[in-house]
């Protein structure tokens, strides 16, 4: 009898494992007490070059960081849920470096000709409520990991993936080119008094020709954000619930470093209760503190930015927003010191309403005034009451509008 029970228990308690058939690796989850990350890493090691990695309709416990880079001609099928562990001390001490802003990630992923499909069901669960309660509103807590970092990735597709309760930013895309991300669902919301702060949907860095299509994002920060050296970015046919809207920046955080954001188009976007439709933010020209929560004094430009065909419902602040006042937490002033140049930005052909009296708040730097700022077809946007304020500072020769304050 004892021998029989031992055999049964041995069958119930096991680590994750890989079944390989040719170039296809199926990852089977282990018992709840085991870390499935080693089995997942093994599958990518075996089938990450010209093969297929399949995560079944199972619950995978991820208790350690993963680095699966250098992939080539690989398909990934995520049919189940990956649940990140609750040992916050481990994650804060062992995150893989983003290589920028002193931030880290729980999973570093990358390669050429990668197809990663979630089929509308494959889920990343970051156990984010633990992080929201732990940080309790503190911005950019050191060691808080990004769920997924896509790095050094080219000619690739990510589709049908769900992200819930992300630990921090949901995704970061760095040093990548010609990548399409479509049908992505993000929902990071807090069920306590602690806000789900810094739960961006995705942030791009040092990347070119990135397309975001058919995203649904509910979060507590930027819905989609372009940061340093993001070029030729297209955002289409997406819905944002809450959050801040489409963000250009922040940028200009490293003193004396030249960076740019250029050729960004966001179109056919629905914003439901977001703070803005599209906005731009740079750091001041005076360094105060160090990244991630401090900095400033950066150089460069943001140009050829277009926000068009937005449907807006109850925006909480304004449709268009520019600020060059970003500084160290709690620091004030320096709004006219940035040398970072903003030019050729258009907000066009949008309908809906703002739950305030402001259509726009445009605070550009006196040291580098904004040029080529254009509004088209704002007549269909309603504001609260009779006020339709467009507040401006250092906006040269506006097109299609007059500053009212």
Automatic annotation (TrEMBL):
MF terms in GO: polygalacturonase activity
Signal sequence residues: 1-15
InterPro entries: Glyco_hydro_28, Pectin_lyas_fold, Pectin_lyase_fold/virulence
Coiled-coil annotated residue ranges, if any: none
GO biological process, one term: cell wall organization
Pfam families attached to this UniProt entry: Glyco_hydro_28
Keywords (A to Z) from UniProt: Cell wall biogenesis/degradation, Glycoprotein, Glycosidase, Hydrolase, Secreted, Signal
Keyword Signal attached: yes
Keyword Cell wall biogenesis/degradation in record: yes
The protein, known as: Polygalacturonase
Native source organism of the sequence: Armillaria gallica
């Amino acid at each position: 009898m004892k021998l029989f029970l031992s055999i049964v228990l041995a069958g119930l308690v096991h680590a994750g494992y890989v079944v390989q058939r040719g170039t296809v690796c199926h990852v089977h989850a282990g018992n709840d007490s085991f870390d499935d990350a080693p089995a997942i890493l093994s599958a990518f090691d075996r089938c990450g070059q010209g093969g297929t990695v399949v995560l079944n309709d199972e619950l995978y416990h991820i208790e350690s960081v993963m680095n699966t880079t250098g992939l080539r001609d690989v398909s990934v099928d995520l049919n189940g849920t990956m649940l990140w562990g609750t040992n916050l001390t481990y994650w804060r001490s062992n995150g893989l470096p983003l290589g920028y802003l002193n931030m880290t990630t729980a999973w570093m992923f990358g390669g050429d000709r990668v197809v990663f499909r979630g089929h509308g069901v494959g889920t990343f669960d970051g156990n984010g409520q633990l992080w929201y309660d732990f940080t309790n509103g503190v911005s950019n807590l050191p060691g808080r990991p990004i769920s997924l970092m896509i790095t050094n990735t080219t000619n690739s597709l990510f589709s049908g993936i769900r992200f819930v309760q992300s630990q921090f930013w949901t995704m970061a895309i760095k040093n990548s080119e010609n990548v399409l991300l479509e049908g992505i669902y993000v929902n990071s919301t807090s069920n306590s008094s602690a806000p789900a702060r810094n739960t961006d949907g995705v942030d791009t860095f040092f990347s070119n020709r990135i397309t975001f299509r058919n995203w649904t994002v509910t979060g507590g920060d930027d819905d989609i954000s372009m940061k340093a050296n993001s070029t030729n970015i297209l955002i289409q046919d997406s819905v944002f619930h809450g959050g801040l809207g489409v963000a250009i920046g922040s940028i200009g955080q490293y003193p004396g470093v030249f960076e740019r954001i250029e050729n960004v188009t966001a179109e056919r976007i629905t914003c439901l209760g977001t703070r803005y439709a599209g906005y731009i933010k740079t750091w001041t020209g005076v360094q105060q503190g160090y990244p991630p929560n401090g900095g400033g004094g950066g150089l460069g430009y943001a140009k050829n930015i277009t926000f068009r065909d937005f449907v807006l419902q109850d925006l909480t602040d304004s449709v268009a927003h520019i600020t060059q006042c970003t500084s160290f937490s709690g620091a004030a002033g320096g709004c006219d010191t940035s040398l970072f140049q903003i030019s050729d930005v258009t907000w066009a052909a949008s309908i809906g309403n703002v739950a305030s009296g402001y259509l726009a708040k445009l605070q550009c730097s006196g040291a580098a005034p904004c040029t080529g700022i254009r509004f088209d077809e704002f007549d269909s946007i309603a504001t609260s009451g009779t006020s339709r304020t467009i507040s401006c500072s250092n906006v040269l020769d506006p097109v299609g509008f007059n500053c009212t304050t």
